[in-house]
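Many introductory courses stop at the sequence. We go one step further.
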Amino acid sequence: MIVVLLAGLAMAQEVDGFVELRLQGYTGVDAAVPLFAVERFRPSFSAPLSDRVVLATTIEAGLGQGWSAQSAFATLAEREKVSPVVLEALGASDAGNAAFGISSASDYLAVDRLTIDFQWKAADLRVGRQALNWGSGFAVNPSDPFPELLLTEPWRPRSGINAARLDIPIGALHGVQLVAGSDDAFLHPRLAGRATVNALETDWSLVGAWRDEIDEGIVGLDLKGTLGVGFWLEGVVHLPAGEEAWEELVTGLDYSVPVLQSLVLTAQYYRNGSGRVGGPSPSPLEPRQAFAPALSGRDYLLTAVAAGLTPELSANVLWMQNLGDGTAFVVPSASVLASGSIDISLAAQIPAATRGPGELKPARRDLRVELPRTDGSLAALDLDGIVPATTLILWTRFNF
Protein backbone atom coordinates (compact mmCIF):
# COMPACT_ATOMS: atom_id res chain seq x y z
CA MET A 1 0.00 0.00 0.00
CA ILE A 2 2.79 2.44 0.92
CA VAL A 3 4.70 1.59 -2.27
CA VAL A 4 1.63 2.38 -4.39
CA LEU A 5 1.13 5.65 -2.52
CA LEU A 6 4.77 6.69 -3.02
CA ALA A 7 4.67 5.83 -6.70
CA GLY A 8 1.67 8.08 -7.15
CA LEU A 9 3.23 10.89 -5.16
CA ALA A 10 6.51 10.64 -7.07
CA MET A 11 4.61 11.55 -10.24
CA ALA A 12 3.34 14.76 -8.62
CA GLN A 13 4.95 18.17 -8.66
CA GLU A 14 7.10 18.16 -5.53
CA VAL A 15 9.81 15.74 -4.42
CA ASP A 16 12.65 16.80 -2.12
CA GLY A 17 14.76 15.53 0.74
CA PHE A 18 18.33 14.53 1.46
CA VAL A 19 20.90 11.75 1.55
CA GLU A 20 23.29 11.83 4.51
CA LEU A 21 26.46 10.10 5.66
CA ARG A 22 27.42 10.62 9.32
CA LEU A 23 30.55 9.48 11.16
CA GLN A 24 30.80 9.64 14.95
CA GLY A 25 34.03 9.11 16.87
CA TYR A 26 34.41 8.73 20.64
CA THR A 27 37.17 9.20 23.17
CA GLY A 28 37.34 7.65 26.62
CA VAL A 29 35.52 4.42 25.72
CA ASP A 30 36.68 0.81 25.76
CA ALA A 31 36.59 0.03 22.05
CA ALA A 32 39.23 -1.04 19.54
CA VAL A 33 37.63 1.17 16.87
CA PRO A 34 35.40 3.77 18.58
CA LEU A 35 33.57 4.80 15.41
CA PHE A 36 29.93 4.68 14.35
CA ALA A 37 28.71 5.27 10.78
CA VAL A 38 25.16 6.11 9.70
CA GLU A 39 23.68 6.27 6.21
CA ARG A 40 20.30 8.00 5.86
CA PHE A 41 17.89 8.58 3.00
CA ARG A 42 14.96 10.90 3.74
CA PRO A 43 12.78 11.76 0.73
CA SER A 44 9.61 13.84 1.00
CA PHE A 45 6.73 13.77 -1.47
CA SER A 46 3.67 15.99 -1.78
CA ALA A 47 0.75 15.98 -4.20
CA PRO A 48 -2.33 18.20 -4.49
CA LEU A 49 -5.50 16.11 -4.47
CA SER A 50 -7.60 19.20 -5.22
CA ASP A 51 -7.31 22.99 -5.03
CA ARG A 52 -7.55 22.86 -1.23
CA VAL A 53 -6.30 19.38 -0.29
CA VAL A 54 -2.64 18.27 -0.25
CA LEU A 55 -1.24 14.85 0.64
CA ALA A 56 2.38 14.64 1.84
CA THR A 57 4.72 12.03 3.28
CA THR A 58 8.33 11.68 4.40
CA ILE A 59 10.14 8.33 4.52
CA GLU A 60 13.16 7.76 6.76
CA ALA A 61 15.53 4.93 5.78
CA GLY A 62 18.84 4.37 7.53
CA LEU A 63 21.54 1.92 8.52
CA GLY A 64 24.19 2.14 11.22
CA GLN A 65 27.43 0.23 11.80
CA GLY A 66 30.14 0.30 14.43
CA TRP A 67 30.48 1.02 18.13
CA SER A 68 27.65 2.57 20.11
CA ALA A 69 26.94 2.98 23.80
CA GLN A 70 23.78 0.88 23.45
CA SER A 71 25.54 -2.04 21.79
CA ALA A 72 28.43 -1.83 24.26
CA PHE A 73 25.98 -1.91 27.18
CA ALA A 74 24.16 -4.90 25.67
CA THR A 75 27.50 -6.75 25.38
CA LEU A 76 28.46 -5.88 28.96
CA ALA A 77 25.04 -6.94 30.28
CA GLU A 78 25.21 -10.25 28.39
CA ARG A 79 28.67 -10.95 29.82
CA GLU A 80 27.39 -10.26 33.33
CA LYS A 81 24.24 -12.37 32.69
CA VAL A 82 21.82 -9.52 33.43
CA SER A 83 18.18 -10.61 33.33
CA PRO A 84 16.63 -10.24 29.83
CA VAL A 85 13.49 -8.85 31.50
CA VAL A 86 15.53 -5.98 32.91
CA LEU A 87 17.21 -5.34 29.56
CA GLU A 88 13.83 -5.25 27.85
CA ALA A 89 12.59 -2.68 30.38
CA LEU A 90 15.68 -0.56 29.74
CA GLY A 91 15.27 -0.81 25.96
CA ALA A 92 18.64 -2.54 25.67
CA SER A 93 17.67 -5.85 24.08
CA ASP A 94 20.20 -7.13 21.56
CA ALA A 95 19.26 -6.65 17.89
CA GLY A 96 19.10 -9.67 15.59
CA ASN A 97 21.74 -8.50 13.10
CA ALA A 98 25.08 -7.79 14.75
CA ALA A 99 26.52 -5.78 11.85
CA PHE A 100 23.61 -3.41 11.26
CA GLY A 101 21.63 -3.60 14.52
CA ILE A 102 18.48 -4.80 12.74
CA SER A 103 15.85 -7.10 14.18
CA SER A 104 12.81 -5.83 12.22
CA ALA A 105 11.93 -3.47 9.35
CA SER A 106 11.19 -0.67 11.82
CA ASP A 107 14.92 -0.59 12.69
CA TYR A 108 15.81 0.78 9.25
CA LEU A 109 12.59 2.09 7.64
CA ALA A 110 9.83 4.35 8.92
CA VAL A 111 7.10 6.64 7.65
CA ASP A 112 8.11 9.69 9.68
CA ARG A 113 5.49 12.05 8.21
CA LEU A 114 2.17 11.26 6.56
CA THR A 115 -0.33 14.12 6.45
CA ILE A 116 -3.30 15.42 4.55
CA ASP A 117 -3.85 19.19 4.57
CA PHE A 118 -7.20 20.90 4.11
CA GLN A 119 -6.77 24.59 3.27
CA TRP A 120 -9.72 26.93 3.62
CA LYS A 121 -10.02 30.71 3.74
CA ALA A 122 -10.80 30.76 7.44
CA ALA A 123 -8.59 27.90 8.68
CA ASP A 124 -6.13 25.13 7.82
CA LEU A 125 -6.44 21.57 9.08
CA ARG A 126 -3.57 19.05 9.03
CA VAL A 127 -4.31 15.42 9.93
CA GLY A 128 -1.74 12.65 10.30
CA ARG A 129 1.79 12.03 11.53
CA GLN A 130 3.41 15.45 11.71
CA ALA A 131 5.97 17.58 13.56
CA LEU A 132 4.82 20.08 16.16
CA ASN A 133 7.02 22.59 17.97
CA TRP A 134 5.66 25.43 20.09
CA GLY A 135 7.64 27.98 22.06
CA SER A 136 10.06 30.85 21.59
CA GLY A 137 12.94 29.74 23.79
CA PHE A 138 16.39 28.71 22.58
CA ALA A 139 16.76 24.90 22.39
CA VAL A 140 14.41 24.36 25.38
CA ASN A 141 10.65 25.01 25.10
CA PRO A 142 8.62 24.51 28.30
CA SER A 143 5.36 25.44 26.53
CA ASP A 144 5.81 22.74 23.89
CA PRO A 145 3.25 20.01 24.68
CA PHE A 146 5.52 17.42 22.98
CA PRO A 147 9.04 18.52 23.99
CA GLU A 148 12.33 17.28 22.55
CA LEU A 149 15.88 18.42 23.32
CA LEU A 150 17.98 18.03 20.15
CA LEU A 151 21.24 19.65 21.32
CA THR A 152 23.12 16.35 21.07
CA GLU A 153 21.47 15.38 17.76
CA PRO A 154 21.47 18.53 15.59
CA TRP A 155 21.02 16.47 12.42
CA ARG A 156 17.75 14.88 13.57
CA PRO A 157 14.36 16.31 12.59
CA ARG A 158 11.74 16.44 15.29
CA SER A 159 9.81 13.23 15.84
CA GLY A 160 6.43 12.94 14.19
CA ILE A 161 3.30 12.66 16.32
CA ASN A 162 -0.18 11.40 15.45
CA ALA A 163 -2.45 14.43 15.57
CA ALA A 164 -5.00 16.70 13.97
CA ARG A 165 -3.97 20.37 14.05
CA LEU A 166 -6.34 23.26 13.30
CA ASP A 167 -4.81 26.68 12.54
CA ILE A 168 -7.20 29.64 12.66
CA PRO A 169 -5.60 32.97 11.66
CA ILE A 170 -7.21 36.12 13.04
CA GLY A 171 -6.08 39.01 10.92
CA ALA A 172 -2.44 39.14 9.86
CA LEU A 173 -0.78 38.85 13.30
CA HIS A 174 -3.09 36.90 15.61
CA GLY A 175 -4.33 33.34 15.64
CA VAL A 176 -5.34 30.15 17.40
CA GLN A 177 -3.95 26.60 17.13
CA LEU A 178 -5.81 23.54 18.43
CA VAL A 179 -4.30 20.04 18.52
CA ALA A 180 -5.84 16.65 19.28
CA GLY A 181 -3.61 13.59 19.09
CA SER A 182 -2.50 10.33 20.65
CA ASP A 183 0.50 8.15 21.30
CA ASP A 184 1.69 5.69 18.62
CA ALA A 185 -0.46 2.90 20.05
CA PHE A 186 -3.57 5.14 20.00
CA LEU A 187 -4.18 4.38 23.67
CA HIS A 188 -3.61 7.79 25.26
CA PRO A 189 -5.20 11.02 24.03
CA ARG A 190 -3.37 14.36 23.98
CA LEU A 191 -4.95 17.82 23.74
CA ALA A 192 -3.27 21.21 23.32
CA GLY A 193 -4.22 24.78 22.46
CA ARG A 194 -2.40 28.03 21.79
CA ALA A 195 -3.85 31.53 21.28
CA THR A 196 -1.57 34.36 20.08
CA VAL A 197 -2.06 38.13 20.03
CA ASN A 198 0.53 40.60 18.70
CA ALA A 199 0.80 43.90 20.60
CA LEU A 200 3.68 46.31 21.31
CA GLU A 201 5.80 44.46 18.71
CA THR A 202 5.50 41.34 20.86
CA ASP A 203 3.72 38.02 20.39
CA TRP A 204 1.72 37.12 23.52
CA SER A 205 0.58 33.48 23.59
CA LEU A 206 -1.51 31.57 26.10
CA VAL A 207 -0.84 27.83 26.06
CA GLY A 208 -2.55 24.84 27.60
CA ALA A 209 -2.20 21.06 27.18
CA TRP A 210 -3.15 17.71 28.70
CA ARG A 211 -1.32 14.41 28.19
CA ASP A 212 -3.13 11.24 29.24
CA GLU A 213 0.06 9.12 29.42
CA ILE A 214 1.09 10.91 32.61
CA ASP A 215 -2.31 12.41 33.54
CA GLU A 216 -0.84 15.91 33.60
CA GLY A 217 -1.92 19.30 32.35
CA ILE A 218 0.15 22.41 31.66
CA VAL A 219 -0.90 26.06 31.43
CA GLY A 220 1.40 28.96 30.65
CA LEU A 221 2.50 32.00 28.72
CA ASP A 222 4.93 32.51 25.84
CA LEU A 223 6.24 36.01 24.95
CA LYS A 224 8.59 36.91 22.12
CA GLY A 225 9.50 40.37 20.82
CA THR A 226 12.17 42.88 19.89
CA LEU A 227 13.15 46.02 21.79
CA GLY A 228 16.59 46.77 20.39
CA VAL A 229 17.44 43.15 21.25
CA GLY A 230 15.37 40.04 20.79
CA PHE A 231 13.80 38.74 24.01
CA TRP A 232 11.57 35.90 25.13
CA LEU A 233 9.88 34.62 28.25
CA GLU A 234 8.28 31.21 28.14
CA GLY A 235 6.90 29.59 31.24
CA VAL A 236 4.33 27.01 32.29
CA VAL A 237 2.93 25.42 35.42
CA HIS A 238 2.76 21.62 35.38
CA LEU A 239 -0.38 20.22 37.04
CA PRO A 240 0.13 16.47 37.59
CA ALA A 241 -2.95 14.68 38.91
CA GLY A 242 -2.70 14.06 42.64
CA GLU A 243 0.72 15.69 42.94
CA GLU A 244 2.15 19.11 43.70
CA ALA A 245 2.30 21.61 40.85
CA TRP A 246 5.72 22.79 39.64
CA GLU A 247 7.05 25.45 37.31
CA GLU A 248 9.25 25.36 34.19
CA LEU A 249 10.47 28.46 32.36
CA VAL A 250 13.09 30.00 30.09
CA THR A 251 13.96 33.64 29.56
CA GLY A 252 16.63 35.04 27.31
CA LEU A 253 18.02 37.63 24.92
CA ASP A 254 19.73 37.60 21.55
CA TYR A 255 21.54 40.38 19.72
CA SER A 256 22.70 40.58 16.13
CA VAL A 257 26.05 42.34 15.78
CA PRO A 258 26.57 44.02 12.37
CA VAL A 259 29.90 42.35 11.55
CA LEU A 260 30.97 39.55 9.19
CA GLN A 261 28.08 38.02 7.26
CA SER A 262 26.21 37.69 10.55
CA LEU A 263 27.00 37.39 14.25
CA VAL A 264 24.30 36.50 16.75
CA LEU A 265 24.89 36.36 20.53
CA THR A 266 22.40 34.45 22.67
CA ALA A 267 21.99 34.02 26.43
CA GLN A 268 19.21 32.17 28.23
CA TYR A 269 18.28 31.06 31.74
CA TYR A 270 16.29 27.83 32.16
CA ARG A 271 14.55 26.68 35.34
CA ASN A 272 13.19 23.18 35.88
CA GLY A 273 11.13 23.35 39.06
CA SER A 274 11.10 19.56 39.37
CA GLY A 275 14.90 19.29 39.07
CA ARG A 276 17.49 18.16 41.58
CA VAL A 277 19.42 20.62 43.71
CA GLY A 278 22.63 18.90 44.81
CA GLY A 279 22.79 15.23 45.66
CA PRO A 280 24.13 12.44 43.47
CA SER A 281 23.82 12.64 39.69
CA PRO A 282 21.12 10.50 38.10
CA SER A 283 22.23 7.14 36.75
CA PRO A 284 22.57 6.94 32.94
CA LEU A 285 20.10 4.05 33.18
CA GLU A 286 17.52 5.91 35.24
CA PRO A 287 14.18 5.62 33.39
CA ARG A 288 12.73 8.87 32.08
CA GLN A 289 9.03 9.58 32.35
CA ALA A 290 7.20 10.58 29.20
CA PHE A 291 7.26 14.37 28.61
CA ALA A 292 9.66 14.87 31.53
CA PRO A 293 12.34 17.58 31.13
CA ALA A 294 15.44 16.22 29.41
CA LEU A 295 17.65 17.97 31.98
CA SER A 296 17.55 16.72 35.57
CA GLY A 297 18.94 19.77 37.43
CA ARG A 298 17.01 22.88 38.45
CA ASP A 299 18.89 25.94 37.09
CA TYR A 300 20.81 26.29 33.81
CA LEU A 301 22.56 28.93 31.74
CA LEU A 302 22.77 28.56 27.96
CA THR A 303 24.95 30.85 25.85
CA ALA A 304 25.71 30.68 22.14
CA VAL A 305 27.63 32.49 19.44
CA ALA A 306 26.59 31.93 15.82
CA ALA A 307 28.83 33.48 13.16
CA GLY A 308 28.35 33.59 9.42
CA LEU A 309 31.94 33.97 8.22
CA THR A 310 31.16 33.87 4.49
CA PRO A 311 27.98 33.00 2.56
CA GLU A 312 29.21 29.39 2.49
CA LEU A 313 30.96 29.04 5.88
CA SER A 314 29.48 29.35 9.38
CA ALA A 315 30.68 28.53 12.89
CA ASN A 316 28.83 28.15 16.19
CA VAL A 317 29.65 27.56 19.84
CA LEU A 318 27.07 26.53 22.44
CA TRP A 319 27.73 26.41 26.19
CA MET A 320 25.16 24.89 28.54
CA GLN A 321 25.88 24.88 32.28
CA ASN A 322 24.10 23.34 35.23
CA LEU A 323 24.30 26.19 37.75
CA GLY A 324 23.70 23.80 40.64
CA ASP A 325 26.61 21.39 40.25
CA GLY A 326 28.86 23.40 37.91
CA THR A 327 29.02 20.83 35.12
CA ALA A 328 28.67 21.99 31.54
CA PHE A 329 28.32 20.85 27.96
CA VAL A 330 30.21 22.56 25.11
CA VAL A 331 29.26 22.09 21.46
CA PRO A 332 31.50 23.84 18.89
CA SER A 333 30.55 23.30 15.25
CA ALA A 334 31.32 24.49 11.73
CA SER A 335 29.40 24.08 8.48
CA VAL A 336 30.26 24.53 4.81
CA LEU A 337 27.73 24.80 2.00
CA ALA A 338 29.34 23.38 -1.13
CA SER A 339 27.88 23.51 -4.65
CA GLY A 340 24.60 24.89 -3.32
CA SER A 341 23.26 21.45 -2.37
CA ILE A 342 25.94 19.76 -0.25
CA ASP A 343 26.30 20.56 3.46
CA ILE A 344 29.41 19.43 5.34
CA SER A 345 29.36 19.87 9.11
CA LEU A 346 31.78 19.06 11.91
CA ALA A 347 30.85 19.23 15.57
CA ALA A 348 32.18 18.15 18.96
CA GLN A 349 30.32 17.43 22.19
CA ILE A 350 32.57 18.04 25.18
CA PRO A 351 31.48 17.62 28.82
CA ALA A 352 33.17 20.04 31.24
CA ALA A 353 33.14 20.82 34.95
CA THR A 354 33.86 24.13 36.68
CA ARG A 355 33.52 22.82 40.25
CA GLY A 356 33.34 19.05 40.15
CA PRO A 357 31.46 16.09 38.71
CA GLY A 358 27.70 16.17 38.27
CA GLU A 359 24.90 15.76 35.76
CA LEU A 360 26.67 16.77 32.54
CA LYS A 361 30.04 15.28 33.54
CA PRO A 362 29.37 12.44 35.99
CA ALA A 363 31.85 11.03 38.48
CA ARG A 364 33.06 7.44 38.10
CA ARG A 365 31.01 6.42 41.15
CA ASP A 366 27.84 7.57 39.38
CA LEU A 367 28.61 5.25 36.46
CA ARG A 368 28.46 2.10 38.57
CA VAL A 369 25.07 0.38 38.68
CA GLU A 370 23.72 -2.89 40.02
CA LEU A 371 21.21 -4.89 37.97
CA PRO A 372 19.56 -8.27 38.69
CA ARG A 373 21.04 -11.34 37.01
CA THR A 374 18.99 -14.21 35.64
CA ASP A 375 19.72 -16.22 38.82
CA GLY A 376 18.49 -13.40 41.09
CA SER A 377 21.89 -12.15 42.23
CA LEU A 378 23.09 -8.59 41.51
CA ALA A 379 25.59 -7.78 38.78
CA ALA A 380 27.82 -4.74 39.37
CA LEU A 381 28.29 -2.93 36.04
CA ASP A 382 30.91 -0.23 35.49
CA LEU A 383 29.63 2.05 32.70
CA ASP A 384 32.73 4.25 32.63
CA GLY A 385 34.02 2.52 29.51
CA ILE A 386 30.81 3.11 27.52
CA VAL A 387 30.18 6.79 28.37
CA PRO A 388 32.25 8.92 25.95
CA ALA A 389 34.52 11.65 27.28
CA THR A 390 34.15 13.50 23.96
CA THR A 391 32.09 12.87 20.84
CA LEU A 392 33.20 14.07 17.40
CA ILE A 393 30.67 14.15 14.56
CA LEU A 394 31.21 14.66 10.86
CA TRP A 395 28.25 14.56 8.54
CA THR A 396 27.70 15.29 4.87
CA ARG A 397 24.25 15.88 3.47
CA PHE A 398 23.21 16.10 -0.18
CA ASN A 399 19.94 18.01 -0.52
CA PHE A 400 17.71 17.42 -3.52
